[in-house]
Amino acid sequence: MTDKIRKTEAEWREDLSPEQYHVLREGGTERAFTGKYESNKAEGMYRCAGCGTPLFSSETKYNSGSGWPSYTAPVESGAVEELRDVSHGMVRTEVRCARCEGHLGHVFPDGPRDAGGLRYCINSASLDFQPED
Fold first, then answer.
1. pLDDT by 10s per residue, the chain, length 133
2. pTM assigned to the model
């Protein structure tokens, strides 16, 4: 993995839209079925909107019905970090970009069994999509 990206909060605010800042830097969540990539079916790579790191491939994207883009696995094991999240009276596993530590969403053990059983439930605001050439 490439070196960590460190920026001041002012730099993050300058580089990100208000929605991206809220999700990536404040751990926010976009409303279900409102994200621009929730129903995207194009082939390509989903990169971190904060630092451009490749995170998820369209090859692992599927329609979970949850209202957020869902993936069975990150593009490589070191692309994301997983942390215990006990907010909102729940115990969940938060997913962050390993490079800039931006909040992406959560991972749940209710994904397709034939693909490992995981569902990476990710906010569209935390992603930039790069279509295949």
1. 568 999 999 999 999 999 999 999 999 999 999 999 999 999 999 999 999 999 999 999 999 999 999 999 999 989 999 988 877 777 789 999 999 999 999 999 999 999 999 999 999 999 999 999 7
2. 0.93
**121 catalytically annotated:** yes
The whole-angstrom separation of Cα 85 and Cα 19 is 21
Q: Which amino acid is at 24?
A: L
Give the bridge partners for 105, in sequence order: 95, 122
For residues 47, 73, 115 and 91, what is the CA-based torsion angle, rounded to 10 degrees?
A: -130
**Which of 48, 51, 100, 121 is labelled catalytic?**
121
Task: Say if residues 51 and 1 touch (Cβ distance below 8 Å).
Answer: no
